Amino acid sequence: MDLELERFSRLLRDCGDSRDLGRGRKLHREILSGGEHLRHCKLLKDQLIHMYGKCGSAVDAWDVFCGINGSDLLSWNLMLSAYAQNGQLGKAREVFERIPRRDVFTWTAMITACHCGNSLEQSKNYFDSMPERNVVTWTAMATAFAGAGYLEEARIIFDKMPEWNLVTWNTMVEAYCSSNELDEAKVIYDSMPQKTMGAMTSFIRVYAENGDVEAAKILFDSMPYHDEISCVSVMAGFVYDCSLDRALFVFNNIQYQSILSWTSMIWGYIQMGHLEEAKVVFDSMPLYNVVALNAMLQIHVINRSVKETKHVFERMCQKNLVSWTLMLLAYAQDGYFLDAQRLFEKMPERNVVICSALMEMYTQMGSLDQALDIFHSMPIHNVVSCTIALQIRSLLGSSIEDLRVMLERFPQKDIVSLNVMLAEYARRGNMDESINFFYFVMPFHNTSSYILLLESYLYNGHVFSTKEIYANMPKESTIASKAIITAYAHSGHLLHAKTTFDRSLCRDLDMWTALICAYGRCAQCREALEIFHELVSSGINPDAITFLSLLFVCSHSGSLKIAQECFSSMVIDYEISPIPDHLSCIVDILDRNFLDSWLYSSFQFTDF
Fold it and tell me: Cα separation of 496 and 386, whole Å?
């Protein structure tokens, strides 16, 4: 291989590894403008297909493939793999059917394509139909099961394998770590003939995600050397722990900082809400890729700046589906629905994520039929699109039985889709069904699940039955506490409401306001005012809703003087402008005291 050919070969591999499509296209143009030996080199064409597939552009990969005279099995397999990696199951199947002679790699690529296309059953069908298998094939099937959440089936495949390689071991460790089953992950890890960086990095990541940052740091420090992936994982842990200084320290000590570490630092700042610092890191980058530019798009989306988002988007030389999705989101969240629809129609490629985002937009607009049309036009569905469709069916008044059947047909279920169904049972007053679904159908729960079950009990008047559920919640929730306090107040059990509040470790403004409302409902104005003074003394500033609750208390008790003091404090001390509901409470108080309009003017509403 001559030096020029070797250089292009190495650079194309680097582009694929870094997912740098813009740089890859530039190299492609250089190859086309080079000599005949470059333009017609089969090796470079195969590497271009491989690079474009890894960079997310199956369209470019297909263009290169079509330019090969007499494609061999390697080229066919690379093209199939490009479609597989990008979740284009239909295109992958077309290529698979056209391949004149198939080998183990061909079949394995189809298993991966079905996995990426959320079609586990088809992955299994291809696996069962294979004339022969190797360790890569077995690993691909285990990965498909694990990726769909079927860890037991993945373990069965693992145990049946005639041999394992390091990728297989890493796959199983990562599968258990991703499902937070650390005990099983450790069993696999301890059985590994050789501890790999990939397996150790999986543990670092899961420790970080669970908030056990010190365990992640200890494992990180014990590694024989630190590659960029392990550094980025422990950086994510420090970001999760709000320790940006420690994350920055690791970042600054990475020997070779690629775009991956730069963009990870940017996303860390974004997650912590430090958008200006994220921009500074972005401006310091030696070169950009689409991931870094997407981070800038994300910053402008968070700031709800459609103009700036559009400015960055239109100047991007390379856009991927994330770029298009962020631009679509920027339009949708600010109500530019027509622009969002036009953008959707211009998209060169659409996947299930894009279609789900458009479904969400149409739902926000109230165009439920159009959202369902998008759903029915999608070649494949994921759990997000199915969950949105379930919510739409609920809004359209589908029966609870129809919704249940629809949920059962989901390709897979997550906690969000299960909570949507639980919410429907609760909203429709089906307490027995809510209980049955929570305890016997849902395989796992989160804080929202417990809150929905609480609300089902509360709506049906079973106030004291909620105590056990509230006590068993894995994590204290101010939303749940607020719901319990409000329910006790509705039932006249102020002592229980106050006890719940006093035992809570995380009292935010909403909880304080709920307790003030609780006393207001029982016409205990003096106690409500004491709670308000405790709130102020705690260092939390009241907002317009807090003052509305106080005025509501005064309205119920007819306390004109206290109402006047509260109103003046709101306007003068806290500079909160009155809203119509504040004024309605004042009018009600004046009416209860049979006062003339001259006294009404003493509240000095004229400026409002």
Answer: 41
Residue 606 has a pLDDT of 41
CB–CB of 506/476 below 8 Å? yes
209 within a domain of the structure (yes/no): yes
Among the three residues 281, 311, 346, which one is the final residue of a domain in this structure? 281
Contact at 8 Å (CB) between 431 and 461? no
Query: How far is the C-alpha of 80 from the C-alpha of 448, rounded, in Å?
Result: 41
Domains in the chain: how many in total?
3
Contact 422, 445 (CB under 8 A): no
| Residue 419 shares a structural domain with residue 525 | no
Q: What is the DSSP letter of 438?
A: I
Q: Measure Cα distances from 489 to 171, 463, 471, 524 in Å.
A: 52, 10, 19, 12
The CA R_g of the chain, rounded to the nearest whole Å, is 30
CA 186/CA 494 separation, integer angstroms: 49
- Answer whether residue 315 is part of any domain: no
Cβ atoms 572, 539 nearer than 8 A: no
Q: How confident is the model at residue 600 (pLDDT cuts 50, 70, 90)?
A: very low
The answer to whether position 134 is within a domain reads no
| Per-residue burial over 78-102, b = 16 or more CB atoms within 10 Å of its CB, e = otherwise | bbbbbbbbbbbbebbbebbeebeeb
CA distance 233 to 240: 11
* Count of other CB atoms within 10 angstroms of residue 410: 18
Tell me, yes or no, whether 36 lies in a domain. no
480, 501: one domain: yes
Q: How far apart are CA 444 and CA 435, in angstroms?
A: 14
Q: Of 423-432, 454-463, 475-484, which gets the smallest average pLDDT? A: 475-484
**Could you give the CA distance from residue 540 to residue 542 in angstroms, rounded to a whole number?**
6
Three-state secondary structure call for residue 485: helix
Contact 515, 531 (CB under 8 A): yes
Residue 218 structural domain: 195-281
- Report pLDDT digits (tens) over 86-134: 878 888 889 888 988 888 888 888 888 887 766 778 888 888 888 888 8
Please answer whether residues 436 and 416 qualify as being in contact, where contact means their C-beta atoms are separated by less than 8 angstroms. Answer: no
The last residue of a domain, from among 281, 302, 331: 281
